[in-house]
Amino acid sequence: MDFVQRLSEIKPDQETVLTIGVFDGVHLGHCHLLDEVINRAGKDYIPAVMTFTNHPATVINPGLQIQKLSTTEEKSRLISKQGIELIVPIPFDQELAAVSASNFSEALVNHLKIAGLVIGPDFALGKGREGNYNVLTQLGMKLGFWVGSVSPLIIDGLPVKSRRIRQDLAEGSITTVTKQLGRLFSISGSVITGNKQGRELGFPTANLSVSENMLLPGDGIYATWTTVNQHTYPSATSIGIRPTFGLTERVVEAHILDFDQNIYGEHITVQFVEKIRDQETFDNLPALITQIAEDVSKARITLKDHGGSNFA
Q1: Do the Cβ atoms of 23 and 30 come closer than 8 Å?
Q2: What is the pLDDT of residue 312?
Q3: Where would you tag: which of 33, 45, 151, 269 has the fewest CB atoms within 10 A of its CB?
Q4: CB-based contacts of 138: which residues, under 8 Å, 6+ apart?
């Protein structure tokens, strides 16, 4: 199904005010843009978002891999939570990359009934990114829609962008990531059977199966919240290759504090609050056990200070 066919199935019942983008992570910069869409839509138009389900850069530059900050489902949920009433997920492919700005705009008018288009900093659409603000404004005058733009949201002296958050996350800078997202970064997945080393050490863990397309925080130990069956518990989560055991597979293991339930196969969510330390290699198991106990103690204190209510 091509781009125009997909749009023809949407059929909004009134005119829309639209914005377009990947919206990976739905960070505060995105929310800044979405707020403008909602404000400009008012009561007369539908606030709408067209979001690409994959990153256009990976199509334009074959071989480039960009891991996601959020799944498509989570992204739609977060966008909807902001007050957007119409979400149009579109896969970006070579065919769409070849569509001119003029034809792209005509399709938006014909099928999404756009009255206005709100764009963020550095936005462009159409083949070769020809559809910048000036070009879109001219097209809007011809086709009957207006174009508005928003300035970037600045935090700590820099624009909030998904690219910046990915870099901070890979470095384990959780507090900086939280500040830009406006919420705790989280990952979700099913609990799978591990090698039970944590249990043998006295600290059983839930091994999380996470899609390779999702970006993980940098290797280390983190104070986290883990949600199981709609209940949230304090936890200490390890990400890394477990070098003390000579292993090479990168895994996510959450030790849920004061918790003893069989949750194999359950879908859980881990929210990251603060990094405790980097991954280390220990000379012997007693040294590792001592360090894990210290990590758990630090996680407990950190989460209590974070406002947790799951403590005695």
Answers
A1: yes
A2: 32
A3: 151
A4: none
* Residues 266, 88: Cα–Cα separation, whole Å: 30
Give φ, ψ of 247 to 5 degrees.
Answer: -95, 165
Amino acid at 55: H
Domain 184-305: top CATH class = mainly beta
Q: Give first-to-last CA distance, the chain, whole Å.
A: 56
Residues in the chain with pLDDT < 70?
1, 194-202, 242-248, 308-312
| Superfamily of domain covering 3-158 | HUPs (3.40.50.620)
Instruction: Give Cα separations from 222 to 27, 105, 173, 230, 250 (angstroms).
Output: 21, 46, 11, 21, 15
* Sequence ranges of the domains in the chain: 3-158, 184-305
Structure tokens at 284: 């012997």
Amino acid 279: pLDDT: 87
- The pLDDT tens digits of the residues spanning 67-122 come to 999 999 999 999 999 999 999 999 999 999 999 999 999 999 999 999 999 999 88
Contacts with 294 (C-beta within 8 Å, 6 or more apart), sequence order: none
- 38 with 58: CB under 8 angstroms? no
Task: Answer for the pair 95, 112: CB distance below 8 angstroms, yes or no.
Answer: no
Per-residue pLDDT, 195? 65
H/E element, 162: helix 162-170
